[in-house]
Amino acid sequence: MIVAILVVALAVTVAKQRNQSENSCENKPVSNTQTTIKPNQSAEEFISTNGQPFPYHDIRLPKNIVPVSYNIYLHPNITESNFTGSVTIICDVKKSTDFVVFHMKNLTIEMISVTRAGAGDNAEAYGGGRWLEYTKNEQIYVALDKTIPDNTQVNPNACLDQFI
């Protein structure tokens, strides 16, 4: 019994000593962490589905436009295995911008428009007829015809047509 206790005590002491030496930084070389692309590496090319360069390179959406609410309409057609619909998003523009970026996946977008929110039929239009799709990040980049000013509320609207 005493031998068993001594073996366990010795094993715990050796394990503790090994653990301390492995966690010690005194004898380990300091590694240099690289945060940029090395000269021999090529930067990822952001090319949209139509072959044009995709101008937005972050997987996260820009922080200058914050969605407030979504209005989604879907019309499924089971017999033809497709659906149509529209999405209207009310967004607060925190900082002026001349583009909008959305996430989307496996949708065919027929039309996108961006207008000032709450103005009804006389809403100021910012454009949206030109957009690019980058499937790797599941994003749509909408180039606007004019800049949306700070502290404006807008309605980006997209019409969808998709086969299930």
Query: Helical element count?
Result: 1
Biggest sheet character? 5 strands, antiparallel
Mean pLDDT: 78
Helix content: 10-25%
The CATH C-level name of the domain at 65-163 is Mainly Beta
Shape: globular
Element-by-element helix/strand order: HEEEEEEEE
Class by SSE composition = mainly beta
Separation of the first and last Cα atoms: 71 Å
Strand content is: 35-45%
Radius of gyration: 27 Å
Report the strand count: 8
Written account of the structure:
By secondary structure, the chain is mainly beta. It has a domain at 65-163: Immunoglobulin-like, CATH 2.60.40. The protein is built from one helix and eight strands. The strands form two sheets. Strands 1-2-8-4-5 form a five-stranded antiparallel beta sheet, with no helix packed on it. A three-stranded antiparallel beta sheet has the order 3-7-6, with no helix packed on it. A hairpin with a 4-residue loop joins β1 and β2 (82-93). The longest helix has 22 residues, at 2-23. Residues 21-42 have low confidence and may be disordered.
